[in-house]
Amino acid sequence: MPRVPLQPVTEAETNSRRGGGKAEEENGQVETDAMRKWRRDWRRIMAISVFYFDVGIEASSVDKIKGHLQLLGARFQAFFDNSVTHVISNRTPGKEHARGDILVKASQLRMKVWSVDKLVKFLTALLGHSPSRELDSAQCAKLSQLLRQEKLVGPSDRDPTARRDDYYYFKGPYILVWDPSHYNRPLLHKEWDRAATPYEGDWPQFRATPIGMCPFVVEPGVGHKKRSHRNTTDTSHKRRALELRAEKAAVTIVKSQQPPQPEPLMHKAADEKSQTPPDTETPTPQIAKDENEPPVGVPAQPETSIQRPPAAFRKYCEITASGMQRYSATSAVKSTVLGETGNGLGATHALASREVNNLQRKVLQPIPIPQLVAPTKAPATMPPSTSSSRVKISKKPGFCENCYERFENFDDHVLTKKHKKYAANAQNFAALDAIIDSLARQPKLPSP
Amino acid sequence: MATMVDHNRSQDPEVVKEITTLEETFFNLPEKFFLLDKIGEGTFSCVYTAVDLLRDHFDNRWESKMTETLSDPSVVAVKRIHVTSAPLRIANELEILATLSDSAHVARVITALRDGDQVLVVMQYVKHTDFRCIYRSGDMDLVRDYMVELLKGLQYCHDNGVIHRDIKPTNFLFNTETNRGVLVDFGLAEFWTAGGTCPCTSGGWEATYVNPQVQAGYRKDDPRPGRRANRAGTRGFRAPEVLFKCNAQTTKIDIWAAGVILLMFLSKRFPFFNSLDDSEAIVEVATIFGRVKMQKCALLHGCVFETTIPTIRESGHAFPQFLDWCNHIRRTPEEMMGSDETAAIDLLSKLLDPDFRTRPSARDALRHDFLTGRSRPLTTKTALPAPHSPSTTGYIQSNQAAKRTEGVYERKQTERAAAAEADKLIASAIKSERPHDPSISAHEQARKIESALFDLRDKLEDEGLDEASIERQIAAERQRLTTKYTSLNRPVPTNQLEVDY
């Protein structure tokens, strides 16, 4: 991963120069807002800083300083490498050093090079007292926290390249969003199977889909078949692809023979599939040529092609809201219900998919397709009526905020003793009733 | 005049069963409302239409403000909140609805009823056009009207300190006949509060010493707490700060969602994002914006974005090229995009700014060239008809002249034009089947007046007048134009509707 460039002069740094001096001179004065902000910012920065002490610095002279830095969450690197953010050196930077000297490298990598003096001044400003003071008992208590932290993220001086048994290392393409201050566990992570070419990957990526449809979704049937056959038969998905193109071309032809008419949003391909398509119009795969061109690894649709209707489940479903903040549900409940990344245990990938299935059941609701015009064609191609699909999901699993309970069947849950008891208690609804009362309709004024 | 909403009960046996059960179990309901049909079902509620049986007994003066969005005042929407919802959540929704009861851009709450754990919220019924009938029309005037109405609604909410949290086409009811739109479903909405500990509150970590080492894995049994933030909303519409679990979210999350809707219009794709979870959502957003911007955005909210997905590029995709790709358009370098499209894409790139701090507010977005119409050399189709009175002031006439230039919609490829035509038919089919409605001509008038006033405001702003005196002049001019138009063409009152239940 590319190193995040260290900005030469940041606002925080400017403050540090100003603030650092100020604190030294006016120690004991009332803290200003700016100073508080400066401290807050730098404490955050310290939590993610990595120090390297240059050769020539006596270990005994910095022992106490190190203790304070450690308490602030900083780490130390015994050997210089590019993970270092701060180099502490008593040599003057910038003065004709040999190529390859650490100070030269540090300035190339835009690391901070501080003298021990500066570090002491800085810490004095940040801590509000001299870093040479002994750690008091309260801080020693923090040290135990620190040890716990070490247990968590490993010793601060360990070799970062060494593999750890308690880690899961990604094997395929992944996304990981993590907290660099190491306070929180990773926000989310997900991994996908490796693919022979990027375009075969299962992760969301642009797919050539007909106009009107989501550009991230392979048409169901196509994608999954392709995936399952990927490693066994190379020809089967090609054949499938050809069939598909043929299908699309057929739709195009049939459509172009008809006068343009309002699209009925209905699936017509079913009976048109049987027609033999001309293969000449099959578009060739277009490969992205330059950075500005969107990637098209799969055949693009001919421009005149009529939009194939979306897959059945997407056609009659509406994405509904999810992931609301529950009033006082515990985080455990939340992560289970909302299909978050779980507790970070083991195979969250598989876990997530189950949660996601639940979530999907919850968030995909059938809705009737609007009738645009009086249907000219017989509704023979109409999908099964929405009521029948409604029956399918009438089990309605979910979460009851009042009983703090997950349920499999909504109708069953509302008849349980616990729920009925809650519903019967008017006290639970006192605050709500107050607002309902304020919304009572006002009687009509007598007409003048 | 015929009623615009059918006052007969649905024929669907499932719906009838559901409705009768509700009528039988809810205290006194049949005396107050005659339920007609089920018109929506969400995660937390379902919505029915109903005839408001006791309407004449109540004070309905609020309706005068809503004439443009109120198609049939005797029909209301009854929102039945699932009994598994916490009373506090319902109270929150009602409180927000009560706060937002003074705008034509938010569905008006009429009253609320409770019987046991069952809560019904009675709302203004808004007739609207299904988004799936319009998102592919390619009609830039429609897109403009839609976005203006949506952003006006958001401006009103945000001015009142409310974050909607669930902006999406199903929650913004836009009517192509009246070109008016109304925000609904404040079930996830919240009042904005200052605070939160996210690093973005103090500038983020974009320029500090973060030096993320590649993790390439995660601790298996991680006892550290997870980051928590309100993620309420609909997948595919969540802003990056929601995905990165920022706990200092602002009204800008609604602006992002509005941007996603504009993206659907311009790409003609619906849904556009189709993620199953937040991880996939981030991958989708990153596919467009690229690794660098996502990394920057993550750092703003105090986290590191790390990925090895090969289809996520460093710098992402430029909107114009990427939208052409979505629309299956291959453009030669000489072929230019219409100025309307260019302006719309510019607005899109501003609404979909991963950095919420530079993302415009609803008010700022409404000043964008695309939405004010300044971007467009108007075709005859969109030009305003000549004013009724010969005594029109100069600024209207000069504006008319400026607008009578040619051609956004001219495209060289006849194929594409034909395709667009077919798409437009969908929208026009709805329009043509409706008889003439006087409320529309009333709306047309209002539209003309507002358009004229907008030009006046522009002119005055150019002259460097201060806000207060501009407002005064505008108010005076609005008064003058309104009296003039109403004397010319008095609209028929819309509340004289026959009831046939």
Automatic annotation (TrEMBL), chain A:
Region described as Disordered: spans on this chain: 1-31, 253-310
This protein's UniProt keywords: Metal-binding, Zinc, Zinc-finger
Keyword Thylakoid included in the entry's annotation: no
Stretches with biased composition (Low complexity): 276-285
Compositionally biased intervals (Basic and acidic residues): 265-274
GO biological process, one term: positive regulation of nuclear cell cycle DNA replication
GO molecular function: nucleic acid binding; protein serine/threonine kinase activator activity; zinc ion binding
GO cellular component terms given for this protein: Dbf4-dependent protein kinase complex
Domain called DBF4-type: residue spans: 393-442
PROSITE patterns: ZF_DBF4
InterPro entries: BRCT_dom_sf (IPR036420), DBF4_BRCT (IPR055116), Regulatory_Dfp1/Him1 (IPR013939), Replication_Regulatory_Kinase (IPR051590), Znf_DBF (IPR006572), Znf_DBF_sf (IPR038545)
Keyword Zinc: yes
Name recorded for this polypeptide: Hsk1-interacting molecule 1
Native organism: Wickerhamiella sorbophila
From TrEMBL, chain B:
Domain Protein kinase positions: 33-371
CDD domains: cwf21_CWC21-like, STKc_Cdc7
Broad class of enzyme this protein falls into: transferase
Keywords annotated in UniProt: ATP-binding, Kinase, Nucleotide-binding, Serine/threonine-protein kinase, Transferase
One Pfam family from the record: cwf21
Cited SUPFAM superfamilies: Protein kinase-like (PK-like)
Polar residues bias (residue ranges): 389-402
EC id: 2.7.11.1
Keyword Cytoplasm: no
Renumbered residue ranges of the record's region Disordered: 376-406
Protein name: non-specific serine/threonine protein kinase
Organism: Wickerhamiella sorbophila
Lineage: Eukaryota, Fungi, Dikarya, Ascomycota, Saccharomycotina
